[in-house]
Amino acid sequence: MHKTTLAACAALVLAACATTPGKKPESAGPAAKPYSYIEDPYPSTYQRIPSAPVLLAGATVLDGTGKRLESADVLMLDGKIVAVGAKLEVPADAVRVDARGKWVTPGIIDVHSHLGVYPSPAASAHSDGNEMTSPVTAQVWAEHSIWPQDPGFAAALAGGITSLQILPGSANLIGGRGVTLKNVYSTTYQGMKFPGAPWGLKMACGENPKRVYGSRGGPSTRMGNIAGFRAAFADAAEYMKKRKGGQDSGKDGGGKRDLKMDSLAGAINGDIRVHNHCYRADEMAIMLDLAKEFGFKISAFHHGVEAYKIADRLGAEGVCGALWADWWGFKMESFDGIQENLLMVDRAPGGCAIVHSDSGEGIQRLNQEAAKVMANGRRIGIDTTPEHAIRWLTINAAKSMGIEKMTGSLEPGKMADVVVWNGNPFSSYARAEQVYIDGTRLYDRNDPKLQPRSDFMLGQDLMQGEAK
Amino acid sequence: MKRPSMKQLAAAGALCLISAGALAQDLLIRNATVHTATAQGTLQGADVLVRNGRIAAIGRGLDGGNAPVLDAKGKPLTPALFAGINDIGAEEVSGESATVDSHLALGSGSKDMQVRPEFDVTTAYNPESVLIPVARVEGFGWTLLTATSTSGGSFIGGQGAPVRFDGSLDPFGPKVLFISLGADGANLTGGSRAGQWMILDQLVDEVRGRIAPDSQFALLTPAGRTTLAKYFGGGGRVAVGVHRASDIRRVLRWAKARNVRIALVGASEGWKVADEIAAAKVPVFVDTLANLPADFDQIGATLENAARMNQAGVDVGFAMGSDGSHYARKMRQLAGNAVSYGMPWEAALAGLTRVPAQAFGVGDQIGGIAVGRRADLALWSGDPLDVAQTASQLWLDGRAVPMKSRQTELRDRYLHRAESALPPAYSR
């Protein structure tokens, strides 16, 4: 009975709030402050950097919606895509970029990064990605761990990354909230925070939580993992009930505020996207049932090296697979990895395949990861066009993160997040030549002034050439 | 279920390709773009004739007699590639310690370092590892097994050797000694990299008899003394893992003074001292994707490392910085990206073929397409350094290797699962 009530209640809530982005705090005084599970006391201060209008002229354009245009122009104005096509009306002050022979794509989006929370160099003092003090730490926010000076942001930018989600690690069953950033250096993380992007909630199945907590009070088994998830969401359901039947009313509810429960309630309401680290097919199936039991939706399974075994179900349930091209064998739950995993998720009816990195190296070349998948497909007679494959690292990632209305494709009105490549991006030899974020060129391979460096890298090479 | 041996598999694959009755190790590959990885460079539209598992002739319009013929249709043919410096066959699942034999930690839990250079990881090598077919279907034919340093062990990891993926139990080239210097090894030498030089000198003293075997300062067993005596006398290659420019300079100096033949592995800051490395004629194995300042030894890491060292005249090969066993196939991506950042294509191919073969003492057998060498060859769908292409066939000693792995079996089982009402477990 308990279960039925909850699910019905949650379904209502889901329908009501499914696409609400992060809300700004209301301006009322602290005493009368309205209450919300997704109130943001650490709001984005990101502001796009002004730029003249830009016309990329004569390129091969993969627009992220599945279309490929030859000899096409892309016009950006006031931070937005204005038009993609031929014979565009161009403002007089537009900067014209000769993009003949180049390929233009939406900015690359990585749904799974630990830049800033596990930065380079890997100093023990900066190892801030896993709050390994309890198996459920839904109350922690990855954004509060981000070191904005991670040199990895610059490297990712050179690989075309314009937006990325920073997640907590996978030591915990529920590791906390992830945050989406624009890949623009700032002194504070708030200055990078993607305005209006929902938070993610990081959950982890399998070996990691039971390994970390096996000798510290549990869980020490997979059944313990599932019991841990269920207990947490049962608590959240009760918490929501106390607060007016689970409605996130924006008004003050009764009882003490619980930051951990806020995150879980936000996930049940659909305002916080659930990103679930899960490798094995059978465990993903358990998690899909568990999500139904407690009335939340899993946005994407991350890593999912066995997603190919249940690709049809993932497609049917509208759950994305955020995957590597070919990682395998580093632990038992990754032993069945194959190079066609992403391809098989993609081919299933309703399938949503995403190339993700989980790596400071991989994030620099998600295009090459996609190229590997395409090549392995060709080997078995399955061809993927570039205009389709680009979706794996742009719009599909954006969908899973809840930012697809703002970025992820080159459509009029969207953020002008754009990459100009030296050729077909799906190759070892592909290089991003220019990267635009909100219509402003913030990386240029041929202009050292547009190759950002973090504070950390300054002055490291002053003795260069003097060493004897 | 009984698994067929590698040799049975290889034979089965060869039979698929050629007519029954012919010698499996005879073959004429016609009309290939032959990247010889030798001074011959690339030969367009060339034939390669294989006799008894060896390359018998290279040229146009060769007469293969009754050897089976394969038309390469102009596709690239290269030597079977070098899979890197890793533990293929000495680890199965990285996270399961019972399946990992790549390092020795006799001193686990003790504060005293155990120095056991006689540790030989090749005696753990399993030629039936599932990692081997996974590497082979990507065009890789051999690897350098490495003994890695670990806590409870020593910054001298022990010995490895080149192994070919032909099912052989034993290595096919000379042993290599592995040493880890810099921050990676410092936790094994009292917390300071200076301890590494101190202990290396102490070991030299011990090998040369200046520290008696029964001295309380002796660190080695008799077998360890014999082993080190060989390498310290220039009698074998020592692969030194090191990144920081200053450490590289010191190890070059040390090797010269002690007459030790070294290779550098890692060398993220090698470009800073490329001229010195070139002058010392020391080969270097780099991870070209390691451009982040991953630790304080690699602040100067750059994507142009390989290109700059090659430009300075260094013999540059490739090796992955981590996870090099399961992802050995990523070695091609390392080479391709080196090209993307300025390394000549032919030099990058050499980094996957000639350079490692010569550095590790097997250059007379493999690493180039030349008459008399083993017919260890790979045919490609296109540019072998581009991740957009794949291997279409691998030959070892002229025998076609089955292009199957545990991964392709899993792929085929689930790709075709809708074709049967029975659960996937019933498909073969």
Written overview of the protein:
The complex is a heterodimer of chains A (468) and B (428). Chain A has 468 residues and is α/β, with parallel strands linked by helices. Helix content of chain A is 24%, strand content 20%. Chain A has one domain (2-49, 108-408): TIM Barrel (Alpha-Beta Barrel), CATH 3.20.20. In chain A, strand 1 (54-62) and strand 2 (68-77) form a beta hairpin. The longest helix of chain A is centred in the middle third of the chain and has 21 residues, at 222-242. Chain A starts with a helix and ends in a 24-residue tail after the last strand. Chain B has 428 residues and is of the alpha/beta class. Chain B folds into 2 domains: 1-80 and 367-428, Urease, subunit C, domain 1 (Roll), CATH 2.30.40.10; 81-366, TIM Barrel (Alpha-Beta Barrel), CATH 3.20.20.140. At the A-B interface, helix 9 of A face helix 6, helix 9 and helix 12 of B.
Spell out the key features of this protein:
heterodimer; A: 468 residues; alpha/beta; 8-stranded mixed sheet; 11 helices; disordered N terminus; B: 428 residues; Urease, subunit C, domain 1; TIM Barrel; 6-stranded mixed sheet; globular
- Using the coordinates shown, work out and report the CATH topology of chain A: TIM Barrel
Helix coverage percent of residues of chain A? Answer: 10-25%
Oligomeric state, counting identical vs distinct chains: heterodimer
CATH superfamily grouping of chain A: Metal-dependent hydrolases
What is the CATH architecture annotation of the largest domain in chain B? Alpha-Beta Barrel
Query: Can you summarize the main beta sheet of chain B?
Result: 8 strands, mixed
CATH class call of chain A = Alpha Beta
CATH fold type of the largest domain in chain B: TIM Barrel
Question: Averaged pLDDT of chain B, please?
Answer: 93
Derived from helix and strand composition plus strand pairing, the structural class of chain B reads alpha/beta
CATH architectural name of chain A: Alpha-Beta Barrel
What is the strand tally of chain B? Answer: 17
Question: What pattern of helices and strands is seen along the backbone of chain A?
Answer: HEEEEEEHEEEHHHEHEHEHEHHHEEE
- Please state roughly what percent of the residues of chain A sit in beta strands, choosing from under 5%, 5-15%, 15-25%, 25-35%, 35-45% or over 45%: 15-25%
Largest sheet of chain A: 8 strands, mixed
Percent helix of chain B? 10-25%
Distance between the first and last residues' Cα of chain A: 78 Å
Over all CA atoms, what is the radius of gyration of chain A? 22 Å
Q: Label the overall shape of chain B.
A: globular
